[in-house]
Every structure is written in structure tokens, then in C-alpha cells.
């Protein structure tokens, strides 16, 4: 009886400790003026947060729509020789600092959302392409042989065997890319792209801690929220037999 009660007591103690930490954190945020400062800037946070989400949606969505098909194409037999070379080119591109990519995009496309979306698209592309290729290449050869033995065409083999077995790795690449994207969007403010970076860099320039946090905290929360949403899609859309989380 005691053995059955102990786990429940431990779980309850952990919940109480978590509630206490949340309460103390909230009390500190209110007492330090951080929370009232965020509430005062709520209109700015909502407006710039909407711009932030739009930049993430446009650039991240474009990276997914372009990166996944590109990764699939580079694993096909006719493109197998250039697959590794393409990944190396993307790796070289990933080593270029984001600010340099933004500067190049601004010099080519001017100021505003267009160069920001282009630079964020480039920054998000590598994890999606590389994970798509890795997931497809890691499909067990025995499954591919079985599919060919059943008379499946290459197209049906891709749709019914390869993609279902590689979707977990592809989703992981998408989550990584979106995390990079959300964290990089604040830099878009430097080339007129808007977003929560306006609050962050304004706070730094004016040495206003509250203004800086008014941009930094929503950015961090947005990254966590987007990752949570994609993680739920990863959990529920991948079939049980090929999903290690289920």
C-alpha cells in the first residue's frame, strides 16, 4: 500500500514545487517592473509579433515547400552523384553569417520584407534538405527490396515506403529550421523587415532593459510555441509503426 502511495506523493510534491516556482517568478516579474512594462508595451508587442509571425510563415513555408522536394530529388538515382555536392554547397552557405546574408539580400533586393524573407529562406533551407536526404537514405534496404518484389513503381515506393519511414527525420529537420528562423527574424529589423527585433534593438540602442525584453521574451515564447505545434504534428501525423514516440 505504501509503495503505491509514494509515487503519487512524489508527483504531487513536484507539481506543488512547480506551482511555487511559477508564483515566485511571477511575483519577481511584477515587483521588478518587468511584467507591468510588458503590459504597457502590449500594443507594440502584438503589432510587431504579427509581423514576426508573417516573416516566419513566409520564409519557413517557402523553405519547407522547396527543401523537402529538393531533398527527395537529390536522393533519386539520376541525381545521386550530385546529392553530396549539393549538401556541401548548402553547408558552405550555412557558414556565412546571417548578417552577411541579410546585407547581400539588401544589396540585391533593397529594403523591406522581400530581402528579409529571402535571407531567412536561405538560413532555413539546410536542415530541411539535409534531414530529408538523411531520412530517405536511412530507409532499410530490405523494405525497398520488398517493395520492388511486390511490383511497386518507383513513385509508389517513394510514397508508400520511403516517405512514411523517413517522415520522423524530416520533421526533425523542419523543427530545427523553424527554430533557427524564429531566432533569426529579429535581425530582419536591420534591413527594414520589421518584427520583434525592433523592440530588441531599440532597447539595446537606448539602454532600456524593459524594451529589449519586450521583444526578446515574446520571441523566445514564439519559438517554443512553434516547436510545440510542429512536435504535435510530428507525433500525430506519423503512423504508429514508424513513429518512435508512439
From TrEMBL:
The entry's keywords: Membrane, Transmembrane, Transmembrane helix, Transport
Organism for this UniProt entry: Bosea thiooxidans
Membrane topology: Multi-pass membrane protein
Signal peptide range: none
Lineage top rank: taxon: Bacteria
Gene Ontology, cellular component aspect: plasma membrane
Family: Belongs to the binding-protein-dependent transport system permease family.
One biological process term in Gene Ontology: glycine betaine transport
Transmembrane segments: 55-74, 86-110, 116-136, 186-206, 213-236
Location(s), subcellular: Cell membrane
Gene3D superfamilies xref list: MetI-like
Protein's UniProt name: Osmoprotectant transport system permease protein
InterPro entries: ABC_transp_perm/SBD (IPR051204), MetI-like (IPR000515), MetI-like_sf (IPR035906)
Domain ABC transmembrane type-1: 49-230
Amino acid at each position: 500500500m505504501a509503495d503505491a502511495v509514494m509515487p503519487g506523493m512524489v508527483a504531487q510534491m513536484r507539481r506543488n514545487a512547480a506551482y511555487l516556482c511559477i508564483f515566485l517568478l511571477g511575483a519577481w516579474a511584477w515587483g521588478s517592473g518587468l511584467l507591468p512594462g510588458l503590459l504597457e508595451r502590449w500594443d507594440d508587442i502584438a503589432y510587431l509579433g504579427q509581423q514576426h509571425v508573417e516573416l516566419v510563415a513566409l520564409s519557413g513555408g517557402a523553405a519547407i515547400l522547396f527543401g523537402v522536394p529538393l531533398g527527395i530529388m537529390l536522393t533519386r538515382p539520376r541525381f545521386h552523384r550530385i546529392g553530396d555536392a549539393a549538401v556541401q554547397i548548402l553547408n558552405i552557405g550555412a557558414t556565412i553569417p546571417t548578417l552577411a546574408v541579410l546585407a547581400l539580400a539588401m544589396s540585391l533586393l533593397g529594403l523591406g520584407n522581400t530581402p528579409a524573407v529571402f535571407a531567412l529562406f536561405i538560413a532555413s533551407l539546410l536542415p530541411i534538405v539535409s534531414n530529408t536526404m538523411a531520412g530517405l537514405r536511412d530507409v532499410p534496404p530490405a523494405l525497398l527490396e520488398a517493395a520492388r518484389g511486390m511490383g511497386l513503381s518507383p513513385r509508389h515506393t517513394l510514397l508508400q515506403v520511403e516517405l512514411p519511414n523517413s517522415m520522423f527525420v524530416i520533421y526533425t529537420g523542419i523543427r530545427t529550421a523553424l527554430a533557427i528562423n524564429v531566432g533569426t527574424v529579429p535581425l530582419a529589423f536591420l534591413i527594414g523587415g520589421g518584427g520583434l527585433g525592433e523592440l530588441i534593438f531599440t532597447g539595446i540602442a537606448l539602454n532600456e532593459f524593459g524594451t529589449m525584453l519586450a521583444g526578446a521574451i515574446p520571441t523566445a515564447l514564439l519559438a517554443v510555441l512553434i516547436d510545440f505545434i510542429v512536435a504535435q504534428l510530428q507525433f500525430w501525423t506519423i503512423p504508429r509503426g514508424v513513429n518512435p514516440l508512439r
